[in-house]
Amino acid sequence: MSTPLIETKGLKKYFTTAYGPLHAVDDVNLTIQRGTTLGVVGESGCGKSTLGRTIIHLLESTDGQILFNGEDVTHVKGKALHEVRERMQIIFQDPYSSLDPRKTILDTVREPLVVSKRYKKSEIDDATDELMELVGIDNRLKYSYPHELDGGRRQRVGIARALALNPDFVVCDEPVSALDVSIQAQVLNLLKRLQQQKQLTYMFVTHDLSVVRHISDDICVMYLGQVVELCPSKELFKMPLHPYTKALLSAIPSVDIHNPMKREILQGELTSPINPKPGCRFASRCKYATAECEKPQVLEEISPNHRVACCRVKEINNL
Amino acid sequence: MAITKNTNEMPFLQIKDLVVEYTSDGETIHAVNGVDLSLRRGETLGLVGETGAGKTTIAKSILRILPDRSAKICGGEIFVNGKDLLKLSEPEIQQIRGNEIAMIFQDPMTALNPVKRVGDQIAEVIRIHNSISPAEVEKRAKEMLELVGIPAQRFREYPHQFSGGMKQRVVIAIALACNPDLLLADEPTTALDVTIQAQVLDMIADLKKQKNSSMIMITHDLGVVAEVCDQVGIIYAGEIVEYGSKEQIFDHPTHPYTIGLFGAIPDMNEDEEWLHPIEGLPPDPTNLPQGCAFNPRCPYATEECRKGKIPFAETPDGHLSRCLHTAEVLKKEANA
C-alpha cells in the first residue's frame, strides 16, 4: 500500500482544567489514504473535532506523531508550519460564525491567497473567480456580506476559502449539520464532486450517521477521546462489532416504517473525560462489561481492515 | 376540502384557516398562510418542514405566545376541547398555558432560566395551576424529576450543572408537570445526540401513553416522524402541502416537495453515488411566489400552478395533497 497522506501515531491532546487533565484525544492511531474520506463519528464531547483540529495544527498536540505524506510534521514551526498549513485546511460547522461579518464574500475567499504572498494581484483575481464558480456561488454575490446569504451559500463560501490554496487534505467539521436536508444534499454533492475533481482527502467529522455512511470510505467511531472501532464504511453498517457502535447505530431513527430497528437504548450519558480510569471508557454504560474491561483496551484487527477496541468482542459477536 | 373528514365527533384540536404575519422593517413576512389541521385525543401529528416554514409559529399561535409587537394572527380559529383559544381573554388563556396545553422548547440551553434552581422551575408551573400547599408542590415537582429519570436529590441544582440531555429532560418535566391534554413538542431532540435522542423519544412516548395526551411533534427529521407520529403534515412556506397518515405519507408521498424531501436524505440501506437535492432555495417569505409556493423549484410546474392558491385534492390512497399534477407525479414515480 502506498504511503498514507495522513497518519497519526499515539496522538494525544489533553486540555488542562481545574479538575485535572481532560483527555480530549487519547492515543489515536489512524491512517487516511490519498483521495479517500475518513468519517469520524461519536457523541458531542467525544473529541472528534479536537482530533481534526490537532491533526491540522490548529491545536498543538500533547503527545504522539502526525505524519503528512510520510513526513513527521508534529513539531514543525515557522515557515515549515506555514507550508504544512497550506496543504491542510478546514471547513467549519457553523457557516454563520465562521465567516467574518465585515468582509465581503470576495475578500473572504481571496484572503488565503493574499496571506500566502505567492501570487500577483491579477492571479488572485482570476483564482477567486474560478473558486466561486467551482463551488457554485453566483459572481454577482461577490460584494455581498455573509448576512445577506442563506446557510447553504455561506457554507459554499467556507468551502471556497478552504480550497483556495489547493490543499491535499481538508477536515470537514460537521459542514452540513446546520443546514436543512434539501440544502444539505446540495452541499454533500458539491463536496463529493470536488473530491473527485481534485483528488482531495477528507476527514469528515459528524454526528449524523446517515451522512457519514454516504460520504465516507472508512469510518472511525470515537468514544471519550479514544477510537473504539475503525473499518470500511459499508462493513461498519453491515457488521458493527463494538457494543458502543451497535447501540449508536440502533439509536438512529429510521424512515423505514415497516421494518423498525430493534432499539437498544443506552442508559446514562458520557462519563467525564477528566482523569479517566485506565480501562474501557464505555464500560459503565455497557451491558457486557466485566472485570476484564477495567484493563486498558487495545485496538485489534478482528477481521481484515476491521479494528475494534474491546476485549470481549469475539465472545459478544460469536466470532 | 377540509382536513377533517370521516368524523362526526368534534376533534380534540382543530385549526381552521390560520394566518399569521410578522412585520419587520416595514415588510410583511407571511409566516403561516391558511393552515387547517385537526387532531384526535391520544394522537400524534408530525409537522415536517424546513427552517422558516412556519412550524414553530403554528405552535406558538396555539399557546398565544407570539411576540406582540411583531407578530399578528390575521385570521383563523383554533379550537381545543371546544374552546376557541383566539377568543379567550389573557387571564383565561393563562389558565390553559402549561396546564391543558404545554410546550417542549427546542433548545434546552435557552429554555431554562440559568439563575433559578431546576426544581423551582418545575415547581412554578405546578404552583400556578394547582391550589395545593408548598410542601405538596415540592413533592410533585420531585416526582416529575424522578419521572424523567433524574434523581430527586438534584432538585436544588442549577441548569449549568446538568448536561444537555438532562436539561432537555427538565424542560420535558416542566411541560408534563400538569398532565397537559395537548403537548406541543418543538424539535425536542434536535439539539441532542442520537443515543440521548433515543432515550428522550422513548420517554415522551411512554409519558404520553400514560396520560393519553395528544401531541404535535415539530421536526425536520423524517426518522423521528417515522418513530413517533400517527399523522403527518408536510409544511412548506407556511402552508400544509401534504397531509395524511404516517403510512400514506411514507409509502406514497405525492406532493413533489415531499418526494424531494425523501430523496434528499442519504439512504441508510442503499448505496448511491449522488444525492438528489431539491434545486433552488425556499422562497422569501416577504415575497412568496404566486400560486403554489413550491412552483419555482418544482419539476412538474406549469403555468396553471402560478395562478392562485392550490386546493387540497384527494390522492388515490385517500390522503390530501395540494398539487394539480398528482396523476402525472404518481405515474412518473411508479416508473422510477
Describe, in short, the structure shown.
The complex is a heterodimer of chains A (319) and B (336). Chain A has 319 residues and is an alpha/beta fold.
The separation of the N and C termini of chain A measures 28 Å
Give the CATH class of chain A.
Answer: Alpha Beta
Q: What fold name goes in the CATH topology slot of chain A?
A: Rossmann fold
> Largest protein interface?
A-B, 39 and 46 residues
Q: How many domains of chain A, as an integer? A: 1
If you average the pLDDT of chain B, what whole number results?
A: 91
Largest sheet of chain A: 8 strands, mixed
Mean pLDDT of chain A: 92
Walk me through what this model shows.
The complex is a heterodimer of chains A (319) and B (336). Chain A is of the alpha/beta class and 319 residues long. Chain A has one domain (6-245): P-loop containing nucleotide triphosphate hydrolases (Rossmann fold), CATH 3.40.50. Chain A has ten helices and twelve strands. Chain A has helices at residues 48-55, 78-87, 105-116, 121-135, 151-163, 181-198, 209-215, 233-238, 243-250, 313-316; strands at residues 6-17, 20-32, 37-41, 63-68, 71-72, 88-91, 169-173, 201-206, 218-223, 226-232, 300-303, 306-308. In chain A, strands 6-7-8-3-9-10-12-11 form an eight-stranded mixed beta sheet, sandwiched between helices. In chain A, strand 9 and strand 10 (226-232) form a beta hairpin. In chain A, helix 3 (105-116) packs across helix 4, helix 4 (121-135) packs across helix 5 (151-163) and helix 5 runs parallel beside helix 6 (181-198). The longest helix of chain A is centred in the middle third of the chain and has 18 residues, at 181-198. Chain A is globular, with a radius of gyration of 21 Å. The two termini of chain A are 28 Å apart. Chain B has a domain at 13-100 and 184-189 and 213-268 and 275-335: 3-Layer(aba) Sandwich (Rossmann fold), CATH 3.40.50.300. Chain B has helices at 55-63, 90-96, 108-111, 118-129, 134-147, 164-176, 194-211, 222-228, 246-251, 256-264, 326-335, and strands at 13-24, 27-39, 44-48, 71-80, 83-84, 101-104, 182-186, 214-219, 231-236, 239-245, 313-314, 320-321. Chain B has eleven helices and twelve strands. Chain B has an eight-stranded mixed beta sheet, sandwiched between helices. The mean pLDDT of chain B is 91. With 336 residues, chain B is α/β, with parallel strands linked by helices.
